[in-house]
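Explain my protein.
***
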Amino acid sequence: MKIMNALKDRNSISARIRQLIIYLTVPLCVLSLFMLLVFIIYSVEYTTVSRNISTASRFNQNFKDEVDLKMYYFVTGSEDEVPLGEVTTAKELAAELLSSTRNKESRKAAGSVLNLCDNLSDCIASIESMEGYDSRMHSLETNVYVLTELIQEYMYTYLYHEAGELAAMQDRIWILLLGGVLISAAVIITVVALSLRQSFRISRSITRPVDELYSRVEEIGQGDLTARPPVEAQDSKLQALGEGLEEMVTRLNDQMELNRQEQIRLRGMELALMQAQINPHFLYNTLDAIMWLIETGKNDQAVEMVSSLSNYFRSFLSNGKDIITLREEELHVRSYLEIQQVRYKDVLQYEIDMDPALDECLVPKMTLQPLVENAIYHGIKSKRGGGSILISSRREDGRAVLTVKDTGMGMDPETLEKQRRSLENSEGSGFGMLASYKRLKLVYDQELDFRLESEENVGTTVTIRIPFRTEENNQNGDEQ
């Protein structure tokens, strides 16, 4: 019996909702279609008149002066050609306007321009066939000058009437719009009055369980995830919603516990990764070198090395940022090289040539240092007599180009190809270069151009091309 009552109640609510929708949609749809049809008709007429005015505006405003002057030059013998081209253009323009114009006065003006152009063409042809200066000049003054004046005047008359037609049409559209708004308002008020009565009946059957669901959701939003009996409602959908809400709370509790455990694990991994990034051998050797400098009385060099080490770790931390400016990355690499040069002063030389225009370019932290470290340990140290490292940057075609070039051992073609494949597959040896490439690939994806060139006993060059982005244009891009 309860099931039947619930189904009956649900069907009753559904029927009322459908009836309410019909009350709202049918009158508004009919009114909207009628208004749309009227506006389409007026829009077509408005577009036609606007196009006519635009077409008429192509008429040469200096038509009379140019035709009169050219005919005068022809009569006086200064020119051998008559201005039939200007007359033909005006005639074609008048014919085009006549074919699309509906206003009576405008059509009359366009027809007058068309007839006058024919008369002007005949008059010009007559002057061409005349002999004698006086007869030509007389025809010019009594015919040509008058006809060009009339043509120009009638064209302006056409524009005047079409502009008036456009203004009158705008007034009619405004009146239509105002009437449509008033009619729509009346229809909406009537429909709303009828709909409110029906909606109040429907709302009473669902407001209570909805209020209870709302209160329950607020409690959940405030952090109360205690499992409770579901909200009871006569409508089966609301009942299902209440049961689903409580089931969601249970699952959310379970998921939050899983997430908490996962966060703990991730934080541990993150800490381990950061600790792993700080090369313990590099730190140990650096501190050992500082102690050696102090023991041998080279305190100034020891102070300089401690300062470089401090700058190195300060730039490494970079206030917790993963994306830093190229100027900050340069400071990090410079500090690293200053430390390494104290250790390998007999075998290592370096030069940093960075374009100041790229100082604010954003790059991932630790972009260049792993490449420099790779150049030292796999290139310079393995070569007798040592070598040098050149770090440079430039801007090319709107992109930042970073280069790390060494004069170390280099690689034979087979080893070079193997190293390139390792980078593409994100696996293999050369941790420093691979780490830098993976970080750049993660940030720039297809926009990254990472090139590795090497020649045995000559050296290795790594060239990186990335988009030139600064903090300012990054913020502008986000706003857009």
